[in-house]
Specification:
The structure is a single chain. By secondary structure, the protein is α/β, with parallel strands linked by helices. It has 2 domains: about 60 residues, no CATH class; about 250 residues, Alpha-Beta Barrel (TIM Barrel), CATH 3.20.20.70. The chain has 9 helices and 14 strands. Strands 5, 6, 7, 8, 9, 10, 11, 12, 13 and 14 form a 10-stranded mixed β-sheet that branches. Helix 3 crosses helix 4 and helix 8 runs parallel beside helix 9. The protein is globular and about 45 Å long. The two termini are about 30 Å apart. About 45% of the residues are buried. The structure holds iron/sulfur cluster (SF4).
Length: about 325
Amino acid sequence: MKSEKRQSNCGATFVKSGDTFRTHFRKIGTSDAICYNNFMECYVCPHRCGADRENGLWGSCGVGITPIVARAHLHLWEEPVISGTKGSGTVFFSGCNLHCVYCQNFDISNKNFGKEISVEHLREIYLNLIKQGAHNINLVTPTHFTEAILQSLSEPLPVPVIWNTSGFETLDTLRRLEGKIQIYLPDLKYADNLAAIKYSNAYDYFRIATNAIKEMYRQTGNYVLDSNGLMQKGVIIRHLLLPGRLEDTKKIIDWIADNFQPGQIMFSLMHQYVPCGRAAEYPELNRTVTQEEYELAELYLMESPVEDGFVQEGDAASPDFIPKWDLTGI
Ligand code: SF4
């Protein structure tokens, strides 16, 4: 069968596998980002592509519904409350519902390197990581595989499960995760919606991501650490400082200060940006963050009411910290 691909105006790629392309319309305006489609099938994330992923009609995430995993290992470089001493049982899913031009995991998020596995095999991977001593199971970029992950978690695990996400989530999908996920680790990438469109192909990102974070907090409540300082439940909001975008970072910190009290959530200001993926096509992003930029962001954070969380050392901005995509643990 001859197939053909088209990119829609909200980023969804539709593959023609029969006689017709499925129709696809996006509402224009800033108040909503709903995608309308006569043949909606996948609504898992805010792109609402309506793609029939089971039958080869892919959406913006670029993958079908069978999970694809690139690596699973004990990760020691997450926040200390996540990595602990033995490591976080990290499972890296391939494909992504965002398309950040600077993505540090470009080979798996955009090129879809990885191996298709069954739900049963996915659960075996969790159990194997737990046997190795994992303090938790850390699902990285999981959103587009929500259905399979829910099946894999039909029986509870003996350690907390982490939803490690871009923050671009629907409330419907998050509500389905309630009780299965103990820790949410969302990015809050941008306050500036135009930057979110330009760099991540995400419409209305700030409203969507902040609503998602409120829902995550509603589910988990205040964060809880055990006697070893390991997180058992809660939310850690991550923000990666981008080159030249300090003002956006300040708005993110302001939003957190305005919406959460000390003791409710944690905040992680990340300093590990290195230009990857297609960053060379965006000269303003094609450099690391300067020490001065990071110190100014850190100073702003320290002077804000946000009290709980982490900052990163400057040596975190190294490609050496990007995992090797070699199917370890799959
Ligand atoms: S999960 Fe993929 S196909 Fe489904 S709405 Fe999101 S980007 Fe589109």
